[in-house]
Amino acid sequence: MATASASASASSTYLRFISQNLVNKSKTQEFSLSKYSFSTFKPIFISISHSCIPLRGYKSTTVVPTKRRLSCNSSLSSIPANTSQYEFSDGSSEIELRLQLGEQVIQSSKDIIVDADGTSLTVRVKRSGSFLTLIETNQLFDKIKPAETIWYIDDDQLVINLKKQDPELKWPDVVESWESLAAGSMQLLKGTSIYLVGDSTEINEKVARELAVGLGYTPLSTKELLETFAKQTIDSWMLAEGSDSVAKGECALLESLSSHVRAVVATLGGQQGAAARADKWQHLYGGFTVWLSQTEALDENSAKEEAKRHVQDGNIGYSNADVVVKLQGWDVDHAKSVAQASLSALKQLILSDKKLPGKKSLYIRLGCRGDWPNIKPPGWDPSTGADASPSTVSEFKNTS
User: Fold this and answer.
1) Which residues fall within 8 angstroms of residue 333, CB to CB, at 6 or more apart?
2) What keywords would UniProt list here (predicted)?
3) 210 and 335 Cβ atoms separated by less than 8 Å
4) Which of 77, 115, 229, 353 could disulfide-link to 122, CB 3.0 to 4.6 Å?
């Protein structure tokens, strides 16, 4: 079963890699998400760069879409400190961005450059003979249809209309930031809990607290709950009864927590707890799992290959996780940024299959029987592997 789960998750697991020079930055330096690298094991999005040029500059809303290949920008999201204030609104099928131009006189359409592709947007305005960047981001909140991008001048504002690829997704902001992720993820998660697993109990707990605060979820720690119940530390429990006993205790606790909603649960790290054992994921499957994994990989590609090997091998329980976040180093002051990377990857996972939250809920309602991701009908017996009767299967298909 572990091998099947690992194989099933290999095509949908998302990876975030956070470099050491980012995590170990001096506390006096500004932290920027732009140093993150993002990739998936199985790329599912292909984007083509476009720009749209108005026919008669600032007096016309008519546009001619012109395809143009853009150079690749290494930063995911960058809004310079001198960026003009902007107004943002989501109109279902499209979003509108209004940038203040001030008293700047626009002589012709050549004084404004609006470059957009599926996930990025760059806006530049000519001032004093050179172009000033008003906004530049390689990480829009979600994908747009670049060929349908239009812009025009309205008094002292540059108005840009971007057509969304997913009209059903509400954009809290134009750029994917911690605030927009926290607000936007609520509509996607639908109350489904999140479990943090991996190498370190401390990292799991710190990141869980940040995620819980951002989402308005309840932060929970299996370490704290187990120590309160057992009236002893996890270390003393390990010495007295061994790691199997601790894992069994955490597994029982996870069974109780599986019925909770809107919780971020930090599990025991390393080899101490249930998550490190592939045969004890029965109740973890009921929520979205994030594997916070420390690595010595020096770049994104190496980290991706490392994570891919772990998932395919299925040698440890963590390989069952929905999302992998690779940490090259750790600094507690940047727990919020690791939480942001985790939430960004979860968002992309759910957008690739919006039925996942509902499927997690169904899995819980059927008793967390360990049949994730191929949920069996009511009446399925996990001990024998026998399916329900044909009539029950037919009824299940009609109602699920």
Assistant:
1) 27
2) Kinase, Transferase
3) yes
4) 115
Tokens for 127, please give them: 């001032």
Name all contacts of 185-188 with Cβ < 8 Å and 24+ positions apart.
185/215, 185/343, 185/346, 185/347, 186/215, 186/216, 188/346, 188/347, 188/350, 188/351, 188/354, 188/357
Cβ atoms < 10 Å from Cβ of 289: 27
Alpha-carbon distances of 304 from 13, 223, 296, 297, 312, rounded to whole Å: 11, 30, 12, 9, 12
Mean pLDDT score, 53-61: 26
**pLDDT by residue (tens digit) across 353-391?**
999 999 999 999 999 999 999 999 998 988 876 665 544
In Å, what is the CA distance from 289 to each residue of 26, 133, 222?
Answer: 30, 39, 14
222-230 helix and 243-257 helix, angle to the nearest 10 degrees: 110
pLDDT at 209: 98
Q: What are phi and psi of 322, to 5 degrees?
A: -75, -35
Q: What number of CA atoms fall less than 13 Å from residue 341's CA on the CB side?
A: 32
- Residues facing 152 on adjacent strands: 159
Does 24 score more than 90 pLDDT? Answer: no
Query: 15 vs 37, 150, 353, CA distance in Å?
Result: 9, 33, 16
**Distance (Å, whole) CA 342 – CA 345:** 5
Per the listing, tokens 């020079």 go with 21
CB neighbour list of residue 386: distance below 8 Å, 6 or more residues apart: 380
Query: Residue 192 and residue 346: Cα distance in Å, rounded?
Result: 12
Res 296: pLDDT = 81
3-state secondary structure of 211: helix
Q: How far is CA 56 from CA 64, 76, 110, 126, 153, in A?
A: 10, 32, 10, 17, 11
Coil, helix or strand at residue 110: helix
